[in-house]
Amino acid sequence: MRGFVRLCFTLSDLDHPALRLTKGLEAEEQTEVDQIEEKLKDAIDLTTQKSQQGRVSALKTLCNFLSLKYLPYFVFDRRMTLQDCAERALKKGKCAEQQEGGKLASLLCFQMGPTLDTETLYKDMRSLFLTLINDTSLGIGAREQCCYTLSILCFVASHNLEEIEDIMKALSNVFKQKLPSDSPQLSALHSAALASWSLLYTLLPSKRVYDSAEANVTMLLKLLESGDVDLRITAGEAIALVYEGARDFDDEFTLANDSEDKNTGDLESELCNMLKSLATDSQKFRAKKDRRQQRSSFRDVLRAVEEGDTPDVHIKFGTEVLVLDSWSRKKQYDAICQVLGSGMNLHLAENEFLRDIFDLGPPMLVGGVTTKVSKSERHAMNMANFKSRSIARQKNRDKRVAAF
Fold it and tell me: How far apart are CA 195 and CA 176, in angstroms?
């Protein structure tokens, strides 16, 4: 009987506030990564709901976590599921949902790196993206994102030069189309296609760049006359990229020197005159911010064409510094930053694929452990620092009291 009473007491005491507090503390000890993975699993489930707004919100959650955190093991385990989420959004969704689906596909590439799974992802989705970027019935934002994602997929997964050039041709067909007047949305699409084309251009061998330099400069020169400042700047940086690649093959490269055609010399002088004009543009009908941004950018482009100057940009993240000392590296950084956004610094510190692209070596170690510190470890370090500060201050207080 006493045993029975004792058992009843134990069972009734399970809902005691002290036990609930203990359970709460145990839940808080769950690692940050585990909590994120639980949220990602919930978001994956919500991508199939009937509400379009709910699906878009779930896709945004997936993209935010995958851009802000490096979770390759989670992504590898659920690659097919995540790919299916992206494909479903691109095929059946509207503009906003297609944008998030395209961004999700590019984030999967950076999480997995250049693996066989990434190549499979590229082969499965290549034709879909080629169809979408040429579909004029689609929203401009969706087509813009598809241009970025297609170039990222090809940049990470493709090692075939002909394949890279085929994708570049498809992207150039977008930005070579004539722009109607007063069409800022189409200008943004052309700028995205040109930026994506420039990313893949960094993969071409210098001989191929040298042979096609005149044709590419002729094509890009027309875009410098655009009314959109972003498209003009993107075209100017692409021209600097062409000159840099051609000079990797021939240090003395100029269009005038490398052709017997007199028109080529005129093309070189026309290009320099236009770059000088854009670098000193002070026309009042342009916004003040646009004029300042344009002049700064085209001064660099002009020096690249005339003197062979390269960028010198230093980006600090953690205890490291990334140096962008070429137009090729700058265009790669800009394209990757377009996808990762505010998570760029974390991926530079932890993502082995990105560190390999920018020659940063393996992820740095601090005190024999990786730079990533768990929440419990941070808490322990803070408590230890607090204790040592308290002891030191107490000693100072004792000295002051004795002196008084």
Answer: 13
Distance CA 77, CA 22 (A): 32
**How far is Cα 207 from Cα 305, in angstroms, rounded to an integer?**
18
d(CA 351, CA 260): 48
Residue 111, CA distances (Å) to 34, 75, 131, 365, 385 in order: 17, 7, 25, 20, 35
Residue 283 buriedness (CB in 10 A; 0-12 / 13-18 / 19+): exposed
CA 86 to chain CA centroid, Å, is 17
- The more confident residue out of 379 and 71 is 71
Burial class (CB in 10 A: 0-12, 13-18, 19+), 374: exposed
pLDDT tens profile 188-227: 999 999 999 999 999 999 999 999 999 999 999 989 988 8
12-63 pLDDT, tens per residue? 444 544 445 445 544 444 577 788 889 999 999 999 999 999 999 999 999 9
- Return the ∠ at Cα 110 (arms to 108 and 115), rounded to 5°: 85
Is residue 127 within 8 A of residue 170, CB to CB? The reply is no
Helix (H) or strand (E) run with residue 313 in it: strand 313-317
User: Maximum distance among all alpha carbons in the chain?
Assistant: 111
| H runs (alpha helix) in 93-133 | 95-112, 116-133
Tell me the per-residue pLDDT of 108-121, one tens digit each, with 9 for 90 and over: 999 999 999 999 99
Element (H, E) at 366: strand 365-366
164: pLDDT confidence band, cut at 50, 70 and 90? very high
Residue 366 dihedral angles phi and psi, to the nearest 5°: -120, 115
Q: Is 101 exposed, middle or buried (0-12, 13-18, 19+ CB in 10 A)?
A: buried
Q: Which residues contact 313 (CB under 8 A, 6 or more apart)?
A: 323, 324, 325, 330
- The arithmetic mean of pLDDT across residues 147-165, rounded, is 94
- In this prediction, residue 31 carries a pLDDT of 74
DSSP state of 31: -
